Amino acid sequence: MPLSRRPPALLAALALLGTVTACTSAAAGDPVGTPSEQHPPTSDSGPPPPPRVPPRIDLKLAVSDGRQSPGTVVAGVEDAVYNYAPAVMVEGGKVRAWWCSQMGSAKPDGDDILYSEGPGPDGPFSTARAVLSGSGTSFDAMHTCDPSLIKIGDTYYMYYTGASRDNHANGSSVGVASSKDGLSWTRENGDQPIIVPSGDTIRQNTYGAGQQSAIYLDGWVYLMFTDTTGLASHQNGAGQYVLRSRDPMFRKDVEALGAQGFKPVSSTNQPRTRSVVEAFSADWMWIEAASAFAIAHSTDDGTTVTFWNKDFTRHPYEPVLIPGAWKEGPGLVRTPEGHAPVNSTDPCGRVSLDVLRATGVSGTGAPTNIGHFGLDATGLKGCATLDEARALEGFAMPSPERTADVVVGGKLMRFERRSVAEKFARGVLGTRPKVADSLKVAVEVPAGAPAVIAPDGVVGIVLDNKLWVVGSTAVATLNSSAIQPVSAEEWARYQRLPDLALR
């Protein structure tokens, strides 16, 4: 994270080893506080990290549909001289972006997290606004940077890097804030960091801990982050560590990824013994259809996407490169849970990999000009298990009875009329994935099934004396369902069919 305001200047760049990059501080200074359970530091010549055993790689993917924006898509306003490290969320039919910058009107002087939104990754995006700045006290007194967001229920959680001053010397730490709208934020955990540098090894690179990326998966928050003091980092500090917890604040039930998988730890700064990729400023997401993590990190020719299976024992696919100009870490276009958006034409075999990333530098040498780059990776061979079949949610497909099925809530709705299924579905598949044969048929929708309309205009189709609420008249009319007006009392008496609304 860049840590100065006027004149704006990046902290000294992390030392590079050919294929990794990020921004951090190499300035000397006292640590900002002493983490609890701090481990005695070693020098650069101390014990080496555990040996790395190359994991197996199963499959090479093809790529297609390369794309990029014609220019900058999001940028700060006023005197914001740099813009980088975006977090990008697809939600409610729009793309929302948060990123690191500086704006003179946002006090105190230091890094700010800005926000903008647009109809797609190429924009146009709204005028940027600052949504989180330094607290004036505590670990994030001056700087907030490197946002990563997930949404759990109706609450957004932003994980961010904080620092109390420019001359911080391994003082960068990870904080968390919550919001109901993604714009107004409340600092959590008593405005104390949830992750601090482990202090396993004190290196010349004095950045500390930060550059985090969060995923919400099966009730766990998975948090990947940089720690230049971690045991398994490269000598220049590059490395990405993973913690997970069922508590978004990481106050309990914390597990760390090590050589033997995830194991419980008593605190978030236990020795960091395993890095999942040798990189800085990485972002990641979960690909539901393939049961795989995808980690995006900057390399010589653009953004490389590295894949891991769920328990981090193998690489299910060879890395994929998203080429093009870059100057600072990428932000993947993800769902609110931090998952890959489901491909609308081939949810089982194709995944869209889109990133926003800084592409140039300002007059002061700071990364800026965030652009959009992307491609589709094909050949996943996904949807092989019931868990992966969740990627089929809302899709219509041929049924064994020469009708059409739609996956809803992990079960099937069987429509006599294909046209009705297609109207109801989010997408239509020409072939039936084998896993669909393992899903139970929850309800059948015959042509001409009776329909009712409530006084407020909401329509429902009656199936086995239960009500399937379809909203408007379109689906009922297409199904040749006669629509009978009913009173509010009659409408309320109908038992509703569960899990028949597309999420």
Structural notes for this entry:
The chain is mostly beta strands and 503 residues long. The protein is built from 3 helices and 33 strands. 4% of the residues lie in helices and 39% in strands. The longest helix has 7 residues, at 418-424. Mean pLDDT is 88; it is low at 2-46.
SSE map:
Elements: E1 57-59, E2 62-68, E3 84-91, E4 94-101, E5 112-118, E6 129-132, E7 143-152, E8 155-163, E9 173-179, E10 186-187, E11 209-217, E12 220-227, E13 241-245, E14 254-258, E15 261-264, E16 283-287, E17 292-299, E18 302-309, E19 315-317, E20 320-323, E21 328-334, E22 350-361, E23 367-378, E24 395-398, E25 404-408, E26 411-415, H1 418-424, E27 427-428, E28 441-445, E29 451-453, E30 459-463, E31 466-471, H2 473-478, E32 483-485, H3 488-493, E33 495-496
Parallel strand pairs: 1-19, 3-21, 24-27, 26-28, 29-32, 31-33
Antiparallel strand pairs: 2-23, 3-4, 4-5, 5-6, 7-8, 8-9, 9-10, 11-12, 12-13, 13-14, 14-15, 16-17, 17-18, 18-20, 21-22, 22-23, 24-25, 25-26, 29-30, 30-31
